[in-house]
Amino acid sequence: MNQELCKSMQDPMRGFKKDWKEAQDRMTAWWQGRRVDRVPASVFAPHQPVHPRATAHIDTAPEKYTDPETVFNNLEYNLERTYWGGEAFPSHFVYFGPLFCTAYFGAAPVFTEATTWYEPCCRNLEDLQALRFDPDHPWWQATLRMTQLSLDRAQGRYLTQWNGEIMAVMDVIAGVLGIEPTLEAMIEHPEIIHAVRDRMSVWSRQTFDAGFAIFQGRQEGAIDWMSLWAPGRVVSSQCDMCAMISPDMFRDFVVPELTDLYNHLDYGIYHLDGPDAIRHVDELLKIKKLDLIQWVAGTKMGNPDFTNPLNWIDLFRKIQNGGKKVIVYCSPQQVKPLLDKLARDRIYLCVYCPDETAAGNVLSELDRIGM
């Protein structure tokens, strides 16, 4: 038996990522505000496996979301065809669809090959006020089972992400009631929306606790849909409907749910999606337990340079000057220009490379740049 195979048997994650312990140590120090040797980064590239377990990716719906055999075939296909460089950890995003907790309240999921969407289930505010979270709901139980199956299968080879909690409560309310009725109710009956939000926030904490309990003694630290490992309990939340409301309404309806959630856990991340969300950054910066903001530029027709991170330097500086870290997505060529303009101790890079050689060059460049 060769030496590398022997090491992989003793340390299963080495099969996908030989330097996982070094990456874990760097992330622990970074989250805790201690000095690290270089900017942390997830560096990805295509990888060609020598002896693949899975030979094809299956994209049929709903099987790709709900059928364990299909789910784990696709997981193996993706794991073994990815180069996991830097602080990128091989992991399983247990995924039935975006904000799947909406289904726990009766919004029927419609599975397609591209995504999952939901049919609103509340005809009026009376229906909304009558909503309850049932721990025996089949979709909640399905999420727990798939997460448990992933942990059982992992055997230390990869990390399992916890994504089954109730979160982004205002988006959930909009999902079950409909976006226009929700916006109308926020103006005409704010007391009802406040009460439903606060009740859902309790269920949010409860579902986080129930989910994380599955991982006790089985996985060190935590990782969620943002794919950043943390040494404690971490959550990435959002409010996509914030693009349609004012900063005052964001402060009134959204900040309380975010504050409650982040206070319940160890590390908080916020998904800031698109230019219409930027007006809420000032309120986000006031949330003490929010550690990190992920910026996603979205798209803008007729402007192919819209997603170029170098065009958003002022936003990144505002986030950093407000005491928060920022996640930036970039190409290999943009790494140095970004780090020349931003505080290196408050940035996390996600870099997608065309091949493993380019990925290795990015990591070497990060080492040369240092802090």
What would you note in describing this structure?
The protein has 371 residues and is α/β, with parallel strands linked by helices. It has one domain: TIM Barrel, CATH 3.20.20. It is built from 14 helices and eleven strands. The chain has helices at residues 3-10, 20-31, 63-66, 68-80, 125-130, 138-154, 169-177, 179-188, 190-215, 247-264, 281-285, 313-321, 335-341, 356-369; strands at residues 41-46, 82-86, 91-92, 108-111, 116-119, 159-160, 234-238, 267-273, 290-296, 325-330, 347-352. Strand 7, helix 10 and strand 8 (267-273) form a beta-alpha-beta unit.
Features:
single chain, 371 residues, alpha/beta, TIM Barrel, 7-stranded mixed β-sheet, two-stranded parallel sheet, 11 strands, disordered N terminus
Look at the helices and sheets and give the structural class.
alpha/beta
Cα shape: globular
The count of helical stretches stands at: 14
Strand order of the largest sheet: 2-1-11-10-9-8-7
Name the helix and strand elements from N-terminus to C-terminus, one letter apiece: HHEHHEEEEHHEHHHEHEHEHEHEH
CATH architecture: Alpha-Beta Barrel
Average pLDDT works out at 94
* Biggest β-sheet strands, sense, barrel: 7 strands, mixed
CATH topology: TIM Barrel
The fraction of residues in strands falls at 5-15%
CATH class: Alpha Beta
Q: How many strands in all?
A: 11
Which segments are poorly predicted (pLDDT under 50) over 5 or more consecutive residues? 1-6
C-alpha termini separation: 41 Å
Overall radius of gyration: 21 Å
How many domain units?
A: 1
Helix-residue proportion = 40-55%
